[in-house]
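Hi U.,

Before I forget, here's the chain from the pilot set. I'm dumping it here mostly so it's searchable later in email.
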Amino acid sequence: MFVDTVIEDKALHKPVFLIGLSIAVLIFFFVLNFTNTLFGEFLRPVIGEPEQSGFFGRFTVSFVLTILFVLNLFVISFFKLKVQILIVWIQLLFLFLAFAYSFDLKMSFIQNRIWLMISRGLFTTIYISAVSIVIASVIAIVGAIAKLSNNGFAYAIASFYTSLFRGLPLLLQLFLIYKGLPQLGFVVDAVPAAITALSLCYGAYMTEIFRAGIQSIPRGQWEASRALGFKFSLTMRKIILPQSIPIIIPPTGNQFIAMLKDSSLASVLGVWELMYLARTLGQRDFRHMEMLITAAMIYWILTIVLEIIQARIEKKYQQKT
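Structure:
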């Protein structure tokens, strides 16, 4: 993050901005109507029965929430940046947990099944995603080189591939591979079908990422390596790709995180990944929210871990460059 060295008053310390923000937030809370929620019950001594309070109750609840919201922002603005981030994270996490708690979750139900979700579902999810990202990266390198070549056939095939697989929904690709290939005599199991669909789909997106990364290297690097007698493969492996990796890594990391979540679509094929187990285990006892929220937390934690790893890899390559 680039630090702005220009010193000026913070927006939250300007009366005009505070008034405008308060009006906008008041309208927002009034439209959503929190009268019949916990906030309405808390203000029952003032507004009476929440369901019968009408306009007065709705406006009062919205007004109190607006004051709390704006005052919270105003107080947080006096802290340092890292402290502000920490406080906001804690508050948002608390709101999310309160949202989950409102479903009257049965914790014993979650405790008895979470190990199966982690040992079987999470393992399958990571396995499918990891294999798919490796295959997709290989496809992307080949596709990027083909789209940058002067060979008309190679460019035509690569451009058709990226157009097709970027233009079709991933769910449709799953069904075409899983149910379409057997029509041609190739029977594909659910897991290989999911890996194939994810690899082809994300390989198409990553082809453009690799192409842009390769094109970001000055043309003089190519000309100098060719003048020294380097072959195309050696030039790509030793000169072009190492310099383009710092540019390729951030979007590729984002694609892997997206692939990790899109692997949940494999559940429609009966693959025992995280989302499939969440739906199946919750369906038996009609405790859907317990399993869905548990799956959501596992996905979220896994995503945070991947974001930390990605940030460390990016920092490492930035130091080298």
